[in-house]
Amino acid sequence: MYALFVRRGRCVAAAIAFLAGESAGAQPPAPLPLATNFAQLRRLTDESGAAPQKTIFELLQFDPRASVSQRICVKGQVVCQRDRTGFLMDGGKGMRFIAKEQTHLKQGDCVEVTGYLELGWPSPLLREAAVHVLGNEPLPMPKVLSTEDMLDRSNDSTLVQVDGTLVNLRDAKGDLVLEMQAGLRPFQACLKSGGGMAAVLRPGSRLVLTGVYVGFGGSGADGQGIDSFEVLIHSPFDIVVLAQPPWWTPWWTLETLFTALGVMTLILLGAMLWVWTLRQRVEAQTKIIREKVQREATLEERTRIARELHDTLEQALTGISLQLKGLTAIWTSAPAEARGIINMARSMVRHGQDEARRTVFNLRQLAFEGSDLPTAFSKMANQTSDGSQPSVEVRIVGTPAALPTKLESHLLRIGQEATTNAQKHAGASHIRLELRYDQNSVQLAVSDDGCGFDAQSAAPSDAGHFGLLGMRERAEKIGGRLKITSDARTGTAVEVFVPLPGTDSSPLKT
Question: What is the reported pLDDT for 30?
Answer without folding.
Answer: 45
